[in-house]
Fold Alpha-D-ribose 1-methylphosphonate 5-triphosphate synthase subunit PhnI.
Amino acid sequence: MYVAVKGGEAAIRNAHAWLAEERRGDTAVAELSVAQIREQLSLAVNRVMAEGSLYDPDLAALAIKQARGDLIEAVFLIRAYRTTLPRFGSTLPVETAEMACDRRISATFKDLPGGQILGPTFDYTHRLLDFKLAAEGGEDAHPAPAVEGVAPAAVPHVTGFLNREGLIEEAPREDSLPPDLTREPLEMPADRALRLQALTRADEGFTLSLAYSTQRGYARNHAFVGELRIGTVPVEMEIPGLGFSIEIGEITLTECETVNQFTGSKTEPPQFTRGYGLVFGQTERKAISMALVDRALRWEELGEDYQGAPAQDAEFVLYHSDNIQATGFLEHIKLPHYVDFQSELELVRKLRREAGVDSLQEAAE
């Protein structure tokens, strides 16, 4: 247990006041509103919602403002708030094949029913700073582009084309409800449903690094993006007594399905296998990374050899991917450890004396 040193409460109050002052910044500059963050920093909002396991753009924007732009701190705030919310029930599984797509691309098939939709993406920008955005009214200097049409409401998944020839594994289905990681602690071994839950709210940077490692040979897992889609899907819920489900709203999701070459094993024939990622909001880098790591973690069920790659080690991946747990453990070392350090200090002095090495203080005396 940590206890405050004398005068600690006053110091903490002053630290809170200073934090509020730093968060506000120069009062001559207009304060940033929650609505501005929600609308103009939407990718940051999406990340906080995904890693915070709570779909609410307004609350995510508020958390970002309160955290001074520290997204991990914002995720922490969202998760803490989430624990206070009552649960009224569970929704039905969303049907991503019925997604109204704003973006839909495939690296495996050029001509798709419904077409490829580039959508809002940085992929084709030149990564040059646009100084017009720094000017007053700079946004108005850009002509409004023609709005690209969205795909039809029902767009089949690309992997269905491979499935017609039996070239890709059937997507495994589980009838039993998976455990809820937001209410039950992670336990090993974890099945795929639980692993996907952990990955979808895992730290984006950590997941990206693991995914990159699989591309550099640490799992020898060459993947194609079978399909990446971003859009809105309806959320339905069965209401007791009605006998049917009703739509309670819609959410934006990013879904990625990778296609991986598989030469076969003792238990499975040669075919293409799948990696899967599904994340709140427009978070395609995270969804692709999640799909690559998901596929790497499936080595055992597919009868592949374990190569000792970090992305293949479920315990390593799942226990170290949560940025809130990682932050808590990391930052606790800056809290008072005076007693612990004094005991270690005495131990080192004793060991030095036993080794015949005098400390500088003893030598001076």
Observations:
- The chain has three domains: 8-82, 96-327, 335-364.
- The longest strand covers residues 245-262.
